[in-house]
Amino acid sequence: MPEAMHLSQRARSAVFAPLAQESRAEIVARRLSDAIALGLLPDATQLPSEADLAARFGVATVTVREALTALRHRGLVETRRGRGGGSFVTAPPDPAASALLARLEEVSPRDLRDLGDHYAALSGSAARLAAERAGPDDLARLEEAMKDLDNAATARERRRAEGQFHVEVAAAAQSPRLTREEIRLQSEVGPLLWLALDDGDAHESACTAHRTLTRAISRGHADRARTLAEEHVADAVGLALSLRRQAQGRRA
Questions:
Q1: pLDDT digits (tens, 9 = 90+) for 166-214
Q2: Could you please report the per-residue DSSP string of 13-24?
Q3: The pTM is what?
Q4: Could you tell me how far CA 92 lies from the centroid of its own chain?
Q5: Domain 97-251 CATH superfamily
Q6: What are the beta bridge partners of residue 79?
Q7: CATH 1.20.120.530 region(s) of the chain?
């Protein structure tokens, strides 16, 4: 009989972490709300019919109806009756930089680094696979996403373009699971990680990082792409930690 493994305290904590208590309707609602938050489903976009959404998500129509009801209560979707009716996105305005900074201060440095480690691993894997698998259409979308950040004039546009670029990298990896996780993380922590893009120098640095990463992916340099993606996330975490320290210093 094999000997029992003696888990470290950290490993044991990970094993026994609380489970997410989500119903299928909540999962559908979260996926749609994440896409709305990232601008993947822009304001006024008409969603597919309930039957079509149910088929795409592989759930019952009643589950989709419950998810849409939850989104309506949150002000993210409105339903119009009659001819030309349906469910339409009503995207809320992005939070102000001051509100995001307040959220950033609530995240401990340890948790922020942990999120960064998780995100760097995901981003690096997506970039490596994109370099191995991306086709001409994928590369064209990456180029467009890269230009969107180059041309973004406001802090809101920069944060959104940054998040969408990373989603396109994951999509180019041709892994639906990776893409869904990328969207989830961008919605959860992206606005905090890209808060530093308000600064012009940080914006230019991000644009340069995108161009270098896109070049590595287009040339099929998988290991190089992974390293660049991981470094880009590490730089973002470092800037976020610096912003957090500065904000707390001003309060002291």
A1: 999 999 999 998 999 999 888 888 888 888 888 889 999 999 999 999 9
A2: HHHTPPPP---H
A3: 0.79
A4: 17
A5: GntR ligand-binding domain-like (1.20.120.530)
A6: 87
A7: 97-251
